[in-house]
Amino acid sequence: MTVRLRPHHLLCLLTYVGRGYTPAFTANFDAIASRLNSGEEVEIVHGLDEICAALAGEEEAHCGGDSVTERDRQAARDLSLLLDAPIAAGARFSLDAERLTHMRAAFAEGTVRAACTGCDWSDLCETVAGGGYGNARIEGPAGSARRA
Questions:
Q1: Measured in whole angstroms, how far is the alpha carbon of residue 66 from the centre of its chain?
Q2: What are the tens digits of pLDDT across the range 92-102?
Q3: Average pLDDT over the chain, rounded to whole?
Q4: How far apart are the C-alpha atoms of 142 and 105, rounded to whole Å?
Q5: What is the 3-state secondary structure (H, E, C) of the chain?
Q6: If we measure between CA atoms, which residue out of 37, 53, 36 comes closest to residue 45?
Q7: By C-alpha distance, which of 98, 79, 112, 87 is closest to 142?
Q8: Rounded distance, CA 56 to CA 70, Å?
């Protein structure tokens, strides 16, 4: 099985600590975190993904908006450079401890945060990154990628 994610959600999962838009959103993200921690592969998708699924039916859902599409573009660009691999629809890879540590270090340094500009969650993510990702729910299969 694979976890289908849009590019900017690769950044969101780095600092996910169990808070979200709604209880259903949080429960869904917790289930995705568990799947990633058990070693499921990520597949990059264009548009709505498994994280968006919990909000897709809401009237005010922002998942399909232009600003979110721009976040995906920026995240794909920055993460492709960081990981030296294309982050584009159809790309598949694992979020092992080494990759998570590398991504978290870049996030903490601010080098992959262009997609986060204007996000309502930026302050929380800054706090989580600044605290060494200690409460982050995504650990990777080896369970050793929290500290950057």
A1: 18
A2: 999 998 999 99
A3: 89
A4: 17
A5: CEEEECCCHHHHCCCCCCCCCCHHHHHHHHHHHHHHHCCCEEEECCCCCCCHHHCCCCCCCCCCCHHHHHHHHHHHHHHHHHHCCCCCCCCEECCCHHHHHHHHHHHHHCCCCHHHCCCCCHHHHHHHHHCCCCCCCCCCCCCCCCCC
A6: 53
A7: 98
A8: 18
pTM score, two decimals?
Answer: 0.90
pLDDT bin (cut points 50, 70, 90) of residue 25 is confident
Check: CB of residue 59 under 8 Å from CB of residue 21: no
| Residue for token pair 């060494």 | 132
Question: Which residues face 12 on adjacent strands?
Answer: none
d(CA 35, CA 84): 25
85/22 Cα distance (integer angstroms)? 33
Q: How far apart are CA 60 and CA 75, in angstroms?
A: 23
